[in-house]
Amino acid sequence: MIHIKSPQEGAALFKALGSDIRIAIVEILLDEPDMSMNELATRLDITAGALTGHVKKLEECGVLKVSVEGTGHGNVKRCSVALDKILIDLQPKNMKKNTWQISLKVGQFSECEVWPTCGMASKDGLIGELDDVRYFSHPARFAADILWFGRGFVEYMVPCFIPVGSRIDCLTISVELSSEAPGVNEVWPSDISFSINSVHLGKWTSPGDFGNQRGRLNPEWWHDGLNQYGFLKMLMVNREGTFIDGRKLSDVNLDALALDDRKGFRLRFAAEGDSDHVGGMTLFGRSFGNYDQDIEVRMDYG
After folding, report:
1. Contact (CB, 8 A) for 276 and 193
2. Beta-carbon count within 10 A of 141 CB
3. How many CA atoms does the CB half-sphere of 267 hold within 13 Å?
4. Where is the HTH arsR-type domain (predicted)?
């Protein structure tokens, strides 16, 4: 998901999509997610040279991914759509509220309970041993930029430093997530639950654990057979309820969370064992996946 917050921020994307040919490229790749440049050029009835410029514009703004596949006759470039959603959130400047933001590293959890398959890594290497849950209590976990587990939860203590006496009007959480399969599996659904202060907000079903292409930010040492990237999900709680990527998830609103402007709150991500789809969870930080961010929390207050 791309979250656009102003017309200027979205200018490159709007320009890239302002072409019938480029719209056709996206539509074709949505129906057939992995095509070579030659296959795509043939489908569009244009030359490979003409296609290259269009693909480059879509790749530069994050709409497409281009990977190189080695063959016996040279390298083949393959294209696929990199996004699941584009969220445009345009708020007039004179309506902009006071905001406070914080980034949490994925290893900064305060409590957890996990079961294999599981593990953690920083940009420099694995933390401990794969599938050994003991390392989730090791101090080295604070350096983790990615973590994964077959079922269980991680919980974060989110501090709050808005002015004392202020009222939180909107809480927004942004994080890159996917399922966790042994190895990778494109079709591996998993129900990922969200809660704040032990109040269940709702759940999102991740469609799979993706390994068809390398994550854009993954370090060179990261093995191709491990989790590569996820979906960027935006969770928002306001006075009307809880929303995910702009779609209403539940009626749980800010009043139900008992937020205290002096204490912060507990944020939990869980892959529960009694869900319909028990497929684990992978949580990506700044050095892994496709999005250059950690767990981002924003509070709008008045």
Report:
1. no
2. 21
3. 23
4. 2-97
